[in-house]
TrEMBL record:
Segments passing through the bilayer: none
Pfam families named among the record's database cross-references: TetR_C_1, TetR_N
Gene Ontology MF terms in the entry: DNA-binding transcription factor activity; transcription cis-regulatory region binding
Feature: DNA-binding region: 35-54
Annotated source species: Cryobacterium mannosilyticum
Annotated keywords: DNA-binding, Repressor, Transcription, Transcription regulation
Signal sequence, start to end: none
Gene3D superfamilies for the chain: Homeodomain-like (1.10.10.60), Tetracycline Repressor, domain 2 (1.10.357.10)
Matches recorded under PANTHER family: HTH-TYPE TRANSCRIPTIONAL REGULATOR RUTR, TRANSCRIPTIONAL REGULATORY PROTEIN
Descriptive protein name: TetR family transcriptional regulator
Entry-linked PROSITE patterns: HTH_TETR_2
Length: 237
């Protein structure tokens, strides 16, 4: 009797595997192209099989955001609140840079999930453990805003609208003409835009070192927060 060929067993489908596949697919095609049908094809199952593990597309996105939050990791309080917050925020930024769709997914969530609340609670806990009053910590969390997730609304920031069509670069003559036109109409913008070298010749911010600008603003914010904390600031004043 001949030996029967052993058919490889398909890994059992569960929520973790569904979310892992969804994150990988979104990394490849973007969040807008992600669908339950396409995800099912990637996993080699019928779409209805996914609904045993995720209720709908919104539940899928909630789970994907939670998966990104898990990549951020836990805060380290051994070096003080300021360094802990800075490292946590930059860790969040690294996670979002690995998954370019994550910002859009986070901003689209209408209700905070437990993972989102746990992350925000961990940041609030850093401030409270650092001796902040609940009042100051409240306002500081508002000041951080989206920066706690590693992103911020920059000048002419196209990352919040990934569907926007990128414009092809203009030729040298057209760029020179545009620059002269901008300099005549908006001299102050041109002055500050050309004060720092850029990778590109745009006067509206393209080519800026995004990581440098993010860390510059984060440190500026943390410095101000530290001064308020040292002064015993309260909103009652």
């Amino acid at each position: 009797m001949g030996q029967q060929m052993e058919v490889p067993r398909r890994a059992r489908l569960n929520r973790e595997r569904v979310l892992e596949a969804a994150v990988t697919l979104a990394d490849e095609v973007g969040i807008d192209a992600l669908s339950m049908r396409r995800l099912a094809q990637e996993l080699g199952v019928v779409p209805m099989a996914l609904y045993k593990h995720v209720a709908d597309k919104e539940d899928l996105l909630d789970g994907m955001v939670e998966a990104i939050i898990r990549e951020i990791g836990s805060p380290h309080l051994d070096s003080g609140w300021r360094d802990a917050i800075r490292r946590q925020v930059l860790s969040a930024r690294s996670a979002l840079q690995r998954h370019r769709w994550a910002r859009q997914a986070i901003e689209s969530r209408s209700n905070p999930t437990p993972a989102v609340l746990e992350y925000q609670d961990s940041l609030a806990g850093i401030f409270l453990a650092g001796g902040f009053t609940p009042d100051l910590a409240h306002h500081v969390m508002h000041a951080l805003g989206g920066r706690m997730w590693g992103f911020t609304q920059e000048l002419f920031d196209g990352s919040a609208n990934p569907k926007a069509d990128a414009q092809p670069p203009a030729g040298p003559d057209a760029q020179a003409e545009m620059f002269a036109h901008m300099a005549a109409l908006y001299p102050n913008i041109v002055t500050i835009a050309t004060a720092t070298p850029h990778d590109h010749d745009s006067v509206v911010g393209r080519g800026c070192d995004d990581q440098f600008e993010f860390e510059f603003a984060l440190d500026l914010l943390l410095n101000g927060i530290e001064q308020l904390h040292q002064r015993g600031w309260t909103s009652a004043r």
